[in-house]
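User: quick one, fold this
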Amino acid sequence: MRTSWSFHSAGQLVFGRGALADLGRWAARRKWQRAFLVTDRMLADAGLVERVLAPLKEAGISVDVFDGGEPEPAIDTAQTAIDQARKVGPDCVVGLGGGSNMDLAKIVSTALAHGGTPASYFGFDQIPGPVVPLICLPTTSGTGSEVSHAAVLTDAKNHIKVSTLSQYLRPTLALVDPALTDGCPKQVTADSGIDALTHAVEAYIATDFDVLDVPTGQPAA
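Assistant:
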């Protein structure tokens, strides 16, 4: 019977309406100078990308944008984002959107730090060390990817989802500004709530595992 437990989250969690205005300050404190923003065209058209770029640029941080994110991102989409990021050479990656965009940003951060392709890190504990610092800004209210240790992609060829799970995937900074969800479609908000409920039920009924079975060198999930 387990007699102890451990808890992990993002390195820093900033929450509050209007918190986005301080994004540049938090990034500048960490001496970051060039960011790579992972998002999607819909959020760009809705003006959310510009709202994120403004505080970063005010802090003197240059930003390159990848807006090719998609729901349940494909492995090929992740590789395209990685290739673009490698040309830029950022010192931090920003994930803006729902869980799909934030997961995509996590994979980009991993490949920038350790090379390889997305498939190099599928499974548990396959990331050998820290990834490029990651900032996550959720625009929905339910996925929790801004604090989780998982990133999920879609293997379109085999019609399955594939996961990368590692404590190194937890963002350095999770900035949660409820104002970013104000324009979220009602259906997406409802789906996000069901997603959060499903994960809560899953956590309650999941079979426990022995922390001693986790490979050495990395803490248990």
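User: anything notable?
Assistant: The domain at 12-206 is CATH 3.40.50.1970 (Rossmann fold).
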